[in-house]
Amino acid sequence: MSKVAVGKPGLDRLKVLLDEASDYLPGVTSRKMFGCYALFANASIYALVWDKDGGRIGLKLPDKAVYDELLAMPGAEPWYAGESRMGYWVLVPESFHQEQGTLLKWVEMAHGYALAAPPKPKRSRTIRRK
Question: Domains along the chain?
Answer without folding.
Answer: 9-116 (3.90.1150.30)
